[in-house]
Amino acid sequence: MKHIKLFEQWVADNRHPFSFEKKTQTPLFEGGAYGHLNHPFDDIDLTMNDMMDMINSTVYGSFSPDNFVQEKTDGQQLSVSWKDGQLVAARNKSQLKNSGENALTIQGVADMFKGRGEIETAYNAAMNDMSKAIGALPDDVKEKYFENGKKFASIEVITPITQNTVPYGLNMLVFHGVVEYDETGNPLGDDKKAGIELGKLIKDINADVQKTFYVRGPQDMEIKPLPNSQKRGAYYKKQLGMIIKDNSLLMSSTVGEYAKNRAKILLQEEADKAGVEIPETSLGGLADRIADISKSYNKRQMKNDLSPEAYAWYDELEKKKGKALKRQIYAPLENLFIELGTEFMKNMSSFLSANPTKAADEMRKEIDGVISKIKKEGGPQEIEKLEHELSRIAAAGGLESIVPTEGITFLYKGKMYKFTGIFAPIHQIRSMLAYKR
């Protein structure tokens, strides 16, 4: 914390290329070269037993160091390596293959974002500062963590001028981990400890405070049980039990089986309302499509199996109500984990945000304004989506449950997952207005 306070003072006392005026900015790319992280309810291979295990670890504070629980940051992702004596960056698979053969140099990144205004300023400053920070490390350390372009560190570029949803109030470059790639650019393994170690090594040689950014590892997380953990554990066990019972599942059933069962029920209800008959042999394939499990049951097969009336009905349903039905299918599991994630994050005692209370107040004020604007100017589909997101917020305890973080990430059975809590619906509402502009 001492270094963060010193850095804040340094920013205040020195000329700075960034304006700290709050701006609305949509994300550049989701995940970049580092890829997308799943919520537990996104992974169709997870079982109900797995979910109960995650719930218990969260409620009782029993995540171990091997779970690598870290704060998830709401910035722009960039993958960097050290190759042939200089910093290089990757934003896609083609720039990762052959040990970063086509990776971007500092000038390459500048050319890529030329004319993009504040994004250009942010990325140029990030590349220059990271070059100095990593460049100050001994050669043997660079070789260990980057292997001349074979390994890339995932970093998050956080600055108020390209702020997404969480107002951190600081310029930070945050290491998340180091990934080794094969010659085709596919990941071979993710070393989460390396992000922590690189942050510490750079701090130890006093290279963490650079011209624009504070370079650091991920936020340390204090894992502790929820208040009234026995009571809350019983509550979440009951909620998951009801979902399992309502959808005729077992503890060994997967999220995919849950989604398919629930999609069948919803599809049959829609068909009954429309007076359409769906053959039992087609219901499973249609359910897979609506639940976004698989599109292998294609339209050619549908035309062969369904009556012309049933085919026309389903085709129209998928086009007009497919997204809404998918949200309805996953809503029970999603709401459960949004509530759990929000409660966990409210129990956290440290955040990357410089002023957590002020940041949370800013988020509440902004989202109130966005909600009012959508209600006033939105069309039927936007209003329907808004109502869905507001129901998710209500499930998490309302806007008073906002905390200034995107969430947490953790490792479970070799895969990385995320809890985003109330951030998820807030970000969706905010994006509705941002993408409309």
- Please outline the major beta sheet: 6 strands, mixed
Order of helices and strands: HHEEEHHHHEEEHEHHHHHHHEEH
Percent of residues in helices comes to 40-55%
Overall mean pLDDT: 81
Number of distinct helices: 15
From the N-terminal CA to the C-terminal CA, the straight-line distance is 38 Å
Gross geometry: globular
Unreliable residue stretches = 1-35, 161-169, 350-356
The proportion of strand residues reads 5-15%
- Indicate the structural class: alpha+beta
Structural domains: how many? 2
Q: Radius of gyration, rounded?
A: 23 Å
- DSSP, total strands: 9
How would you summarize what this structure contains?
It is built from 15 helices and 9 strands.
Task: Explain this structure.
The structure is a single chain. By secondary structure, the chain is an alpha+beta fold. It has two domains: 2-30 and 74-216, no CATH class; 229-436, no CATH class. It has 15 helices and nine strands. The chain has helices spanning 2-13, 48-59, 97-100, 106-112, 118-135, 139-146, 192-204, 229-246, 255-274, 280-290, 299-305, 308-346, 356-377, 380-395, 423-436; strands spanning 70-72, 76-83, 86-90, 151-158, 172-181, 187-191, 214-216, 407-412, 415-419. The strands form two sheets. Strands 2, 3, 4, 5, 6 and 7 form a six-stranded mixed beta sheet that branches. A three-stranded antiparallel beta sheet has the order 1-8-9. Strand 5 and strand 6 form a beta hairpin. Helix 8 runs antiparallel to helix 12, helix 12 (308-346) runs parallel beside helix 14 and helix 13 crosses helix 15 (423-436). The longest helix is centred in the C-terminal third of the chain and has 39 residues, at 308-346. The protein is globular, with a radius of gyration of 23 Å. It starts with a helix and ends with a helix.
